[in-house]
Specification:
With 427 residues, the chain is α/β, with parallel strands linked by helices. 46% of the residues lie in helices and 17% in strands. It folds into three domains: 101 residues, 2-Layer Sandwich (Gyrase A, domain 2), CATH 3.30.1360; 140 residues, tRNA modification GTPase MnmE domain 2 (Four Helix Bundle (Hemerythrin (Met), subunit A), Up-down Bundle); 127 residues, Rossmann fold.
Length: 427
């Protein structure tokens, strides 16, 4: 494989820039630019020089040998001063060394996958970790990057391989009397994996929400204070407010961090009957987004309940509490009830987030559902007697293949392009 290089830190002015090189030409890079290779995993201060012998910069140089690096190849890190001129000069010199080329997005991580340093679930978790904006997203991504899902898959796979071995013994010696009936053990193994898969599948939806963000819709009639509440929650004038009804025509979104959870607050058009064609479109969108949201906050002055939109767990509040003496409600204008609302939203969403599983992507769910379907089919075949043992074994084989696709042992090429397209250069 060609030796690749890239700037791994953000472009622009900085105190330090990190430039990574991975591949068989690492010793040659060191010889050309900074002398002999330093001792593995020990930082050395070296002068970086160009082909003309002119000094480009002084850098900290760190060398990782083959099979002991992130990519599994020999890796060199050059920690230079972070000026654009220094970075451009170093990258320019690297590009002139034969056998080197600029890395593509995610190519360092792709090589880690190719060399068995990471499995596919850890690659996806690394992508999530790079994109994490909140503490909950970071924690969830680290669970995946530490290999928790891969280890769980290994447990399932080991149990299924044991079940397969027992089934195949029965098939191979079908004409002979086997001293021990293996069917009860096979049933127990399949039942345990089925239970584990079902538990993880139940947690995928919540895990995806932690990864992509929960949605909370503010819903109510026109001019009830929805936009004012959104602005108060956002801490800025995100929405236009007016005493005239129907000001909000489209769904406005504000991203927030509630105790580590990513949350998007939606300000929707006021719900009412109208002849205005544009407002009708806004109201239809408001209803669609409110139905699809994870939680709804209903504001009303006259006790409207919007039964067609309300779901269990939604929040119903009296609006414009600043105008009502002693009213227990909320006011976006004065801030009354805001802290209580934020605390309530946080408690509800934290409770939901606690149900997140190890699987965090739709791809994970698809693979697990395929495996689950195969195992249930195998269980049914076993219930119908020994004559269908070969069919049960075939279904267990199918389940193992589905789990292998989950961690990237097979059928990996189809998803790599989509995964690595989200990576930055140098990762």
């Amino acid at each position: 494989m060609e030796t690749i290089f890239a700037l791994s830190t953000a472009p622009g002015k900085a105190a330090v820039a990190v430039i990574r090189v991975s591949g068989s030409e690492v010793p040659e890079v060191c010889r050309v630019m900074c002398g002999d290779l330093p001792a593995p995993r020990q930082v050395a201060l070296r002068a970086l020089r160009g082909r003309s012998g002119d000094r480009i910069d002084e850098a900290l140089v760190l060398f990782f040998p083959e099979k002991a690096s992130f990519t599994g190849e020999a890796v060199l890190e050059l920690q230079t001063h972070g000026s654009p001129a220094v970075i451009a000069a170093v990258l320019g010199e690297l590009s002139r060394i034969p056998g080197l080329r600029q890395a593509e997005p995610g190519e360092f991580t792709r090589r880690a996958l190719d060399h068995g340093r990471l499995d596919l679930t850890r690659v996806e978790a690394l992508s999530d970790l790079l994109a994490a904006e909140t503490e909950a997203q970071r924690r969830q991504a680290m669970r995946g990057f530490s290999g928790e899902l891969a280890r769980e898959c290994a447990i399932w796979r080991e149990a299924l391989l044991r079940a397969l071995a027992l089934l195949e013994v029965t098939i191979d010696f079908a004409d002979e009397e086997i001293p021990v009936d293996v069917t009860p053990e096979v049933r127990a193994l399949l039942a345990d994996v089925i239970q584990r898969l079902e538990r993880q599948i139940r947690g995928v939806g919540i895990a995806e929400r932690v990864r992509t963000g929960f949605e909370v819709a503010i819903v109510g009639p026109p001019n009830v204070g929805k936009s004012t509440l959104l602005n108060r929650l956002a801490g800025r004038d995100a929405a236009i407010t007016s005493e005239h009804a129907g000001t909000t025509r489209d769904v406005l979104e504000v991203r927030m961090d509630l105790d580590g959870l990513p949350v998007t607050i939606l300000d929707t058009a006021g719900l009412r009957e109208t002849r205005d064609a544009v407002e009708k479109i806004g109201i239809a969108r408001a209803r669609d987004r409110a139905k699809a949201a994870d939680l709804r906050v209903f504001l009303s002055e006259k006790g409207e309940r919007f039964a067609d939109l309300a779901q269990v767990g939604d929040i119903h509040l009296v609006a414009k509490a600043d105008l009502l003496d002693g009213a227990d409600g909320i006011s976006g204008l004065t801030g009354k009830g805001i802290d209580a609302l934020v605390a309530r939203l946080t408690d509800i969403l934290q409770e939901r987030a606690s149900g997140a599983g190890l699987a965090t992507h739709a791809r994970h769910e698809f693979a697990m559902r395929k495996a689950l379907m195969s195992l249930k089919e195998a269980h049914e075949h076993l219930d119908l007697g020994e004559s269908l043992t070969d069919l049960a074994a075939a279904e267990v084989h199918s389940a193992v293949r589905s789990l292998d696709s989950l961690v990237g042992r097979i059928d990996v090429e189809a998803v790599l392009g989509e995964i690595f397209s989200s990576f930055c250069l140098g990762k």
